[in-house]
Amino acid sequence: MSVGKVVLAYSGGLDTSVMIKWIQEKYSAEVYTLTLDLGQRDDFREIEERARKIGSKEHFFVDAKSEFVERFIFPAIKANGFYEGKYPLSTALGRPLIAEKLVDVAHKVGADAVAHGSTGKGNDQVRFDITVRALDPELKVLAPVRDWGLSRDVELEYAKKWGLPISESRSKYSIDQNLWGRSVESGPLEDPFSEPEDDVYEWVTPPERAPDRPEYLTLTFKEGVPVALDGERRDPVSMIQALNAIAGRNGVGLVDHIEDRLVGIKSREVYEVPAALTVLEAHRDLEKMTLTVHELAVKAELEDVWSRLVYNGLWLEPLRRHIDAFIDSTQRVVSGDVRLKFYKGHLQVVGRRSPNSLYRLEMSTYARESKFNQQLAVGFIELWGMQTITANSVRSRASG
Ligand code: ARG
Fold first, then answer.
1. Where does residue 281 fall: left (phi above 0), alpha (psi -120 to 50 degrees), or beta otherwise?
2. Rounded distance from Cα 267 to ligand 1 centre (Å)
3. Is residue 174 among the annotated active site residues?
4. Residue 304: CB partners within 8 Å, gap ≥ 6?
5. Cα radius of gyration rounded to whole Å, the chain
């Protein structure tokens, strides 16, 4: 493959640092680097410096935090986005935005290729490749770790040979972070029976060391997304950051599960997702108060489709937009307050209220003045159970 100019998604880690030099050498190409701030708490100045030292022709930096929240996290909240009931899709939501910005920079500098550091064994390669190609089918996509089978040892040797200034902090884990969560894989976690050691966690205080008193919080939603904390309006980014801090210090936000990757592998995944678990729990609760049983049932099915599309790299699939249109239409009434209680790793919704509530005290109350006409229940049960009662009597006669 021949390429002239390549834009590389640069995290500052070992893989992508080696790739700057590797691509220059193997393809005799010019390498531009791009780093996005998605809330991963890195030192972006240091990253930029490293990119330049290794030989980036030009480094691009984009603070994409608020775009990430508004265009990716908010739809995920409205869709109650969870993969296999456990994973709030944090990494999966970040990838299409990175891919989109890669394409933008490629157009700006007139590049004919983009590059990313994914291996050939995960979901991220699928998300990058498909999103880039959906946006610009002319662009080539290089994935040197996959395409050249680069391993950690090979990379370290290569970095030494060229005297590359790689980052000292070499973790035994493979980590991806953004505002919506921190994904941790590999190393000691590859034994699915062994409990994650304490060095896995950075965002969440282990529940046994969390405060001995509960902490309460009221989260206000407007049309399906959180807008205020304890009555105080927050901008979307600081809202998510604050929730990560509050839930995290109370030991809330840990996920440890066996996940089915699109490429067939079952893997052990550990996540720190304090804000995500909190917002999704509260959002689901408020939906139960404001949506009808029929809306909830169909929405739940579509949520599962939505989550799979996103997990499986199809952010740009038109079906995702159609589902979003349905979901947005349901969210117009999902406004109100949810009271949450955090205590030593436990999160509980302890109250909810909404101007659009479908909860009717005069119907549900056990008190005598209830408006619910119990006599109507008799006829209702008669009709509702008709076929079941008939089938049981017909069939028991037939078999008896
Ligand atoms: N299994 C998750 C996903 O596919 C997380 C991937 C994390 N990536 C990483 N480089 N550690 O979305």
1. alpha
2. 10
3. yes
4. none
5. 25
Nearest to 280 by CA among 72, 66, 79: 79
Sign of CA dihedral 323, 64, 125, 41: negative
The whole-number pLDDT of residue 370 equals 86
Task: Report the DSSP pairing between strands 225-229 and 215-222.
Answer: antiparallel
Helix count (H) and strand count (E) of the chain?
Answer: 15, 14
- As a residue count, the chain comes to 400
Q: What is the pLDDT of residues 304-329, one digit of tens each?
A: 999 999 999 999 999 999 999 999 99
- Proportion of the chain above pLDDT 70, given as a percent: 98
Nearest CA-CA partner of 179 in 85, 93, 62, 278: 93
Atom index in ligand 1 nearest the CA of residue 261 equals 4
Atom of ligand 1 nearest to the CA of 269: 1
Q: Counting atoms of ligand 1 from 1, which one is nearest the CA of 259?
A: 1
Where does ligand 1 bind, in terms of residues with CB under 6 Å?
Answer: 91-92, 122-124, 174-176, 183, 185, 259, 269
Annotated catalytic residue 133: no
Active site residue 56: no
Rounded to the nearest angstrom, the distance between the alpha carbon of 20 and the centre of ligand 1 is 22
Tell me, yes or no, if 63 is annotated catalytic: no
| Distance from residue 311's CA to the centre of ligand 1 (Å) | 10
Query: 327 Cβ partners below 8 Å, 6+ apart?
Result: 75, 78, 79, 224, 299, 302, 303, 306
- 82, 124, 259, 262: residue to mutate for ligand 1 pocket, most atoms within 8 A of CB: 124
What value does the mean pLDDT take over residues 65-83?
A: 98
Best of 90, 91, 172, 266 for a ligand 1 pocket test (most atoms within 8 Å of beta carbon)? 91
With vertex at residue 121, the alpha carbon angle to CA 316 and CA 31, rounded to the nearest 5 degrees, is: 70
Q: Which pLDDT value is given to residue 152? A: 85
Name the catalytic one among 66, 167, 171, 174. Answer: 174
Distance CA 339, CA 348 (A): 9
Dihedral sign for Cα atoms in the order 158, 161, 166, 169: positive
Task: Name the β-bridge partners of 347.
Answer: 342
CA of 104 from ligand 1 middle (Å) equals 24
Query: What pLDDT shows up at residue 167?
Result: 75
- Quick one: pLDDT band at residue 169, thresholds 50, 70, 90? low
Res. 171 pLDDT band, cuts 50 70 90: confident
